[in-house]
Amino acid sequence: MLTEMNTDQYLTLLLGHLDLQTGRMVMTQAGHPFPVLQRANGDIKFLGNGGFPIGLIEDAAFDQFDLMLELGDRVLILSDGIMECVDPAGNMLRDEGLLDLVRENKSLRGNDFLEALIWNLNGFACDQEFPDDVSAILIEYEDPNRETA
Predict the structure, then answer these.
(1) Mind listing the pLDDT tens digit for each residue in 7-51?
(2) Is this structure's pTM higher than 0.70?
(3) Tens of pLDDT along 88-110?
(4) Where are the domains of the chain?
């Protein structure tokens, strides 16, 4: 496909803006894996429509979407290497496997959540080397008026 378009350069992107006072989050997705929204009550879903990577199609339009975060909600932004993680039989984790891991670690917050996610991935892969980069950003929406230390 890239050969037909005379390019081998492209990138994925997820650009977001979060208003910390209102909880409104606006995102634009350009071929990047779907972010995961986990509501404070445990409900979970993928966000966005995917879209095309930047540089793949000339003059591509990128859709914007928005959501309202409530206190205790969180958004997980991740690299595709997480869903492409494989077990010893060669089965990829995929979307549903990721959602299962997020559900399993619902009670954990911040770095504890991210560390548990990586340990769970390592367990799924039975200590095999990850085939691709594994990275994630966790956004947890908390009381904007809370005093921090």
Answers:
(1) 678 889 999 999 999 999 999 999 999 999 999 999 999 999 888
(2) yes
(3) 999 999 999 999 999 999 999 99
(4) 1-77, 79-138
Sign of the four-CA dihedral 75, 100, 110, 131: negative
Alpha-carbon distances of 38 from 27, 103, 104, 136, 138, rounded to whole Å: 16, 9, 12, 15, 11
How does 2-37 read in b/e, with b if 16+ C-beta sit within 10 Å? eeeeeeeeeebebebebeeeeeebebbbbbbbbbbb
The two three-digit tokens of residue 23, written as one number:
């909880």
